[in-house]
Design brief:
With 139 residues, the protein is mainly beta. 12% of the residues lie in helices and 33% in strands. It has an 8-stranded mixed β-sheet with strand order 2-5-4-3-7-6-1-8. The chain starts with a strand and ends with a strand.
Length: 139
């Protein structure tokens, strides 16, 4: 059975603010979501896994799922302590993703393979794009 998670994109996620943010954040406190993506060895420095996503046109995307964990090392290797999905710029560009749009990841039967969909904010909807709830599980 497939499982899906969605995130309302912020302007920061899509690069509209000009920030140097590296991909979309995956909250480390959201265990169900962390378990949805590939298992990463948190004892390694910045463990990562490639995930392969097929969009609604059938185009395949290679995205990087990484745990930036340098803060947990002694001595500290960085100040970061966050999970992210990176390498998304071209995907967002293809679908002209903007703040307020959503991204949906759906599991498949293959390891590290997902379906990905960008859902556009409808013209009659408004979004403040100050999204505090972030990710949602779709049942």
């Amino acid at each position: 059975m497939s499982e899906s998670h969605t995130k309302i994109l912020t302007r920061n996620d899509t690069g509209e603010t000009g920030s140097h943010q590296g991909g979309i954040a995956v909250p480390k406190t959201h265990r169900e979501l962390i378990n949805f993506f590939p298992r990463l060895d948190v004892k390694q420095f910045n463990p990562e896994s490639w995930i392969y996503c097929t969009d609604q046109d059938g185009e395949r995307w290679k995205l990087r799922y990484i745990y930036y964990n340098g803060k947990s090392f002694t001595p500290s290797k960085s100040t970061r302590n966050e999970y992210r999905i990176t390498q998304m710029t071209r995907l967002f560009g293809k679908w002209n993703a903007k703040g307020g749009d959503s991204i949906v990841f759906t599991s498949t039967t293959k390891k590290n393979e997902y379906k990905v969909e960008i859902k556009k904010l409808k013209d009659n909807e408004t979004s403040t794009v100050i999204v505090l709830k972030g990710w949602s599980h779709i049942f």
